[in-house]
Amino acid sequence: xxxxxxxxxAGNRRYEAAFFRELKNLYRQSAFIGGPWLEAFEKxxxxxxxxxxxxxxxxxxxxxxxxxxxxxxxxxxxVIVPAFTFPGTAWGILYQGAIPVFADVLLKDGxxxxxxxxxxxxxxxxxxxxxxxxxxxxxxxxxxxxxRERRLVLIEDAAQAHGGFYQGKALGTLGDFGCFSFYPxxxxxxxxxxxxxxVKRKSAAGRLRRLRDHGQRRKFSPxxxxxxxxxxxxxxxxxxxxxxxxxxxxxxxxxxxxRYLSAxxxxxxxxxxxxxxxxxxxxxxxxxxxxxxxxxxxxLKTRGIGHQIYYPxxxxxxxxxxxxxxxxxxxxxxxxxxxxALPLYPxxxxxxxxxxxxxxxxx
Length: 363
Prior knowledge:
With 363 residues, the protein is of the alpha/beta class. Helices cover 39% and strands 15% of the residues. The protein folds into two domains: 8-244, Aspartate Aminotransferase, domain 2 (3-Layer(aba) Sandwich); 245-362, Aspartate Aminotransferase, domain 1 (Alpha-Beta Complex), CATH 3.90.1150. Strand 4, helix 7 (140-150) and strand 5 form a beta-alpha-beta unit. Helix 2 packs antiparallel against helix 9 (233-242).
């Protein structure tokens, strides 16, 4: 029985009737950019996280870029970023003419290592960009302390962490900016690209709204260099429908992840990445380190179990980032050599879960 790595339609079909019914209203009002659906989603997403405001954007990459612009990051500034993450985390640094400074990560969860962050700070450092990788919370307490003492901006890349928590607070609300992606595969996924920035101060939200809309508050009156980084209202409509289900969906992900973890107890060949005791993971992905990855991949292929390699290379090893690489990043390099992601989504049926558990036992 083939086991798909992800089945998007299985997750979206429960919203189908409501979506097309509401889409008809949006279409008739021609409220495609801005408007009531977008404003309602921003309000509801901010409320769900318990923070002051939300600014919806065209993508998670755009959210990170606008956060860097709003933080005043410019040419020659240094931004510390994990060496192991999706490239979109760091594009905005390059867009601003700034310098990505790579810090190694923790082997236990793949998130940025605060001790290496400290080692990488210079007089040109302006910000720390922490990623909640695979939904696991980064070590925000020490990172917040470093940022506060060194007067640095702390930006959370929560693109994979919708509904996760750190010491009781929603991920994306502890730093100066919390950036999300609503790419279709995310825990809260749309019908295309989309993103958002959570902020603690409404004044910060005002500037971000200006930046995403050509630098203007009033039409045809830009006040600064801006961008076309608006979320379209169709995405907002769909995300509003899905948002109330996020806690239950994450709870189901957690149940599945715990079953996988239980199956791996005492297995020295397959070592799962998992959250620290301070956090509650959103469990966007179940990723493990396979000491003999090629052998484990053969097991998965033989059983027809979908899988992904997240991620096959560190950021410093990728061509656009090589000029900024300095030294080695041993933990990040180990993860790139050994990581495998297994199917993990709320709609997985019991026979499929049992197949995955058998593969873990065989691996």
